[in-house]
Specification:
Layout (H helix, E strand, L loop, with lengths): L1 E9 L2 E7 L16 H9 L9 E9 L2 E8 L4 E2 L3 H15 L5 E7 L2 E11 L2 E10 L1 E2 L17 E5 L3 E6 L8 H7 L4 E7 L5 E8 L3 E3 L3 H14 L8 E6 L2 E7 L6 E17 L3
Parallel strand pairs: 2-3, 4-6, 11-12, 13-15
Antiparallel strand pairs: 1-2, 1-17, 3-4, 4-5, 6-7, 7-8, 8-17, 9-10, 10-11, 12-13, 13-14, 15-16, 16-17
Length: 278
């Protein structure tokens, strides 16, 4: 069947969004029987498909209550995406025809997230997301294979999905692709301080997608780690995270202690009619 899919990006981190309400046009269709993993691989392929870092399935439960399912470019399922959830919220916001700020409650595999959406222009919104509690996790298997200097600061964190954050002197000179592939079961961020006193610079190798232009959950993990390491002053409550695709802001211990709030844009890119194998 033919479906309409919209393409969005958060700081260059690209997602395709499918509103599954379209599937109701096929009364005998069981959406749970669709091979969404294979669909994501086909549609997100940058050579033969539309091209994206992931596929988001948007389900509506009632007004302002949504559900997000995320499949990475390689077809794997992911619990959460900070950039992706902003793109999902923009897709719903645009489809609903709102012109003023609204708040969505979104069910994800990592739990409930609240997204506040503010229109900026016809194709852009600014969204803030309560990303939940930051938690420490065990180091990933094969961590020793990356050869990280034991004197470097390292933190393994969950933002609903797993991250390993490493402090370095210069993010530009690190062979991120090589070391990221060695621990492909987690998201790997490398960070350096500055250039501003309240900022860090980050690059990321994402689980299931490889090197991307930005990562929302990665920005959250990196800002949290940077604060703990003293890369930004202890008085800083909102960290500016520079990434290749643009800047995001992370509010620490907000809206409650131990939580972080991610703030950044989401942009509409294009609309596509695609064939869904059912």
């Amino acid at each position: 069947m033919q479906v309409v899919v919209t393409k969005h990006h958060g700081l260059g981190n690209e997602f395709l969004v499918l509103d599954v309400a379209q599937l109701a046009a096929e009364p005998n269709l069981d959406a749970t029987k669709i091979d969404w993993s294979n669909t994501a691989q086909q549609w997100c392929d940058r050579q033969d498909g539309v091209g994206a870092d992931g596929l988001l399935l948007l389900t509506r439960h009632e007004e302002f209550k949504l559900e997000m399912q995320l499949f990475n470019q390689d077809g794997s399922r992911a619990e959460m995406s900070g950039n992706g959830i902003r793109c999902l919220a923009q897709a719903a916001f645009d489809a609903d025809g709102y012109s003023e700020s609204v708040s969505y409650t979104v069910a994800t595999d990592a739990g409930i997230r609240v997204v506040d959406v503010e229109p900026v222009s016809q194709d852009e919104v600014r969204a803030s997301v309560d990303m939940g509690k930051i938690e420490t996790i065990s180091e990933p298997e094969n961590w020793s294979t990356i050869g990280s200097d034991p004197n470097r600061p390292v933190m393994h964190l969950s933002v609903g999905n797993p991250h390993s954050v490493v402090g370095v002197e210069d993010v530009a000179v690190v062979n991120l692709l090589e070391i990221g592939r060695k621990i492909s079961q987690v998201n790997l961020e490398i960070v350096e301080p500055g250039p501003e006193s309240d900022a860090i610079t980050m690059r990321v190798h994402e689980r299931g997608a490889g090197i991307t232009q930005a990562c929302g959950t990665g920005a959250c993990a990196s800002a949290w780690a940077a604060s703990k390491w003293g890369l930004v002053p202890a008085s800083v409550r909102e960290v500016l995270v520079h990434q290749p695709g643009g800047d995001a802001s992370v509010r620490l211990n907000h809206p409650q202690r131990g939580h972080v709030t991610l703030i950044g844009p989401a942009n509409f890119s294009s609309r596509h009619n695609l064939e869904l194998v059912v």
